[in-house]
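Re-run with default settings, no changes from the original entry. Doing this only to confirm the output is reproducible before filing.
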Amino acid sequence: MKPEDLIHDWNRPGNADPPRMQGRLMVDDETLRDGLQSPSVIDPSIEEKVRILHLMDALGIDTANVGLPGAGPRAVEHVSALCSEIVSAKLKIRPNCAARTVIKDIEPIVEISQKTGIPVEACLFIGSSPIRQYAEGWDEEFLIKQSAEAIKYAVDHGLPVMFVTEDTSRARPETLRRLYGEAVQQGASRVCITDTVGHATPDGVTRVVRYIAQVVGEAGGDHIGIDWHGHRDRGMGLANSISAFLAGATRVHGCGLGIGERCGNTEIDLLLVNMKLLGWIRRDLSRLGEYCEMVSKATGVPIPSNYPVVGGDAFETATGVHAAAVIKAYRKGDDWLADRIYSGVAAGDYGLKQRIRIGPMSGRSNVVFWLEQQEIEATTERVDRIFDAAKKSDRLLEDGEIRSLL
């Protein structure tokens, strides 16, 4: 049978093609900047960051925030090394750097760009919500003046600029209209809507993205790209990012494994998976597992066993009914079927594979299949011995334990 005859996709109205957005959808990887603001991470070595950068490039990630050089000498050293690596290795990924709307934060970005010979997008951020203004003692006039001076300085020094309003999802519409209008007039090439504290819901994302698109257009910025930068404080980071694309954003930010400030950022690995499943991108994601493992190793953040796609449990089953269905698919010689019969995500698309385990909820077919995979004859005595041990166990049996039973 044809694949489309085996799965009816309720995610598509009338099983129609997915919605088509305007232009090419891009992703920006914040792992090496916002990701490292997590209280639990280790700041990786330059060598580890270079390895992560190469894996980002292999996944077709469009841009990467390689740091905040205004933070000090170590940050300048690392950002410089990463920009140089992009040039020398001829990577397709493009770099950007975060900076406050302060000249002294922008100056090192200018110097790095000139030294390495690659345009470095300056991501200039300033708080925009009334709660932030109250805490800082700012008013709107200060925000406008600070933003205008910073954007003009960066543009005058040859940097492409993305203007970022922090806490956009809690800011007043009139404030945002003034700030984004000024950014367009000063020459920003992109604007970024942020959900800095993870406040937004998917409906809220839709409203704010559409509003900013209207504001930017009315200011003469129809050519300007719109970014979405979301956090996971309410557990909605991924859903919000999908909503941002649907509402008109052309680039969405995320971090490997969802690391970042407090509860973290949108999981860029899962964002890529969902973009592929929705038919929005056709990139080779076969090294996604390698990317996540490298991010985990370099930052010291473990991958939870139940983490989607790359977690240890994602493509494993020991449950009798589930395992039997997968095994029957393999018996048909149909890896495509085996990858989807009990999985909404195809392991093979991400360099991974289904695995049948043996435990207290397993059937005899699990044992037979395991033995065959190990090229061991599945005699009745062997199957009975392993099956009986599994039923008495309070967990899945490890391969070594099974072998000891033989």
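Residues 140-156 form the longest helix (17 residues). Strands lie at 26-29, 63-65, 94-100, 121-127, 161-166, 190-195, 225-230, 251-254, 316-317, 355-356.
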